[in-house]
Design brief:
Distance between the termini: 24 Å
Shape: elongated
Strand content: 25-35%
Structural class: alpha+beta
Radius of gyration: 25 Å
Largest sheet: 6 strands, mixed
Helix content: 10-25%
Number of helices: 9
């Protein structure tokens, strides 16, 4: 399978509004890359430009060694799966799977081989005679996937294919897609606004905001070392806690102070913080890193405002001097509403951002 390369690709509509702004990105041979971001960030537009359904304003798109800017969609050797299954209701599953191949005049023996192979891989072999109305939502989605698979394209493109499914079915289909990718080892580009889908599916994820690329990295890197405040807030559920703190010199080192609460910063950022003496930074700490036991980085007095039990754990909303905070606490030890406790966190778990640029102070991009 070939790689896909985007070089400073832009899409500008009337009145100069940029849907995609100078995005450069390489999708490796056999990789599953997820484009993720909020609604309107340009991820579907980017996917449609790769497919040839949307004309690019500037830049270059390569599939393999071929520049495809002016190549029609049918000649790009890609297959696209949309959130709308777009199955022919009057055709059986077999006929839906075979339709595209028969239109391309593929030999019938080859059509039957590819259809049976895809049906077996997707667990549809017992449904080939059924019409779409006789299938569940998950089965229809598998037919849409199978229709793309039988073409044996160079690249698979997925545009929010699971968004019409209920929560349980989405989890099942995510696992199916992951297994499918591991079996066929195809180059896949997947668009979603759901950060959980992005984290669980992608070999790498590319985070977009207002048409610009914010960070591209493996899911655990994006989570542990976000490039900026937007990425830190968008990736992670529940979202990261953010509050302002002032930089203070503390003997030979530096410390952070927020509403009377002293915070020991990560030792690795002491140099960067020393240059900001008297200035402010934005502190980020993830809900699972706020704990009830001493952790060696800081302590914040807090009172329980709201509890959200989730079985084995409880999401606890706290009122604190630095503002409202959210923590993820094991269900067995979660305090009651109105209870006063102290929240602790380890220094190395903190994320620090420049409040003006919103960039991570350590500048770690991967």
């Amino acid at each position: 399978m070939p790689r896909v390369e985007l070089k400073t690709v832009s899409k500008t509509y009337a009145r100069g509004a940029a849907a995609v702004d100078r995005v450069s990105l390489e999708i490796k041979d056999g990789e599953l890359l997820v484009l993720v971001g909020p609604s309107g960030c340009g991820k579907s537009t980017l996917l449609r430009m790769i497919a040839g359904l949307e004309e690019i304003t500037s830049g270059e798109i390569r599939i393999g060694e071929r520049v495809v800017n002016d190549v029609p969609p049918r000649d790009r050797d890609i297959a696209m799966v949309f959130q709308n299954y777009a199955l022919y209701p009057h055709m059986s599953v077999l006929e839906n799977l075979a339709f595209g191949l028969r239109r391309r005049k593929v030999a019938e023996a080859e059509v039957q081989r590819r259809v049976r192979e895809a049906a077996l891989m997707l667990g549809l072999e017992g449904h080939l005679a059924r019409k779409p109305r006789e299938l569940s939502g998950g089965e229809r989605q598998r037919v849409a996937l199978g229709r793309a698979m039988v073409r044996e394209p160079q690249v698979f493109l997925f545009d929010e294919p699971l968004s019409n499914l209920d929560a349980r079915l989405r989890v099942e289909m995510r696992a199916e897609l992951k297994r499918l990718h591991q079996r066929v080892k195809a180059t896949m580009i997947y668009v979603t606004h759901d950060q959980t889908e992005a984290m669980t599916l992608g070999d790498r994820i590319a985070v977009l905001r207002k048409g610009t690329l914010q960070q591209v990295a493996e899911p655990d890197v994006v989570y542990a070392r976000p490039a900026n405040q937007f990425v830190a807030g968008f990736i992670g559920s529940p979202p990261i806690n953010l509050f302002a703190a002032q930089v203070r010199r503390n003997g030979t080192g530096v410390a952070l102070e927020s509403s009377g609460v002293a915070i020991a910063p990560p030792a690795s950022l002491a140099g960067a913080l020393a240059r900001l003496d008297g200035g402010t930074v934005t502190v980020g700490v993830r809900p699972e890193d706020l704990v009830l036991e001493a952790a060696g980085g800081g302590a914040i007095p807090a009172q329980v405002e709201v509890r959200e039990p989730l079985g084995n754990e409880v999401l606890v909303h706290w009122t604190t001097p630095v503002g409202s905070l959210l923590s993820r606490i094991p269900g067995q030890v979660a305090p009651a509403v109105g209870e006063n406790r102290t929240l602790h966190f380890a220094s190395e778990k903190l994320h620090l951002f420049d409040p003006k640029t919103e960039q991570a102070l350590d500048g770690s991009l991967s």
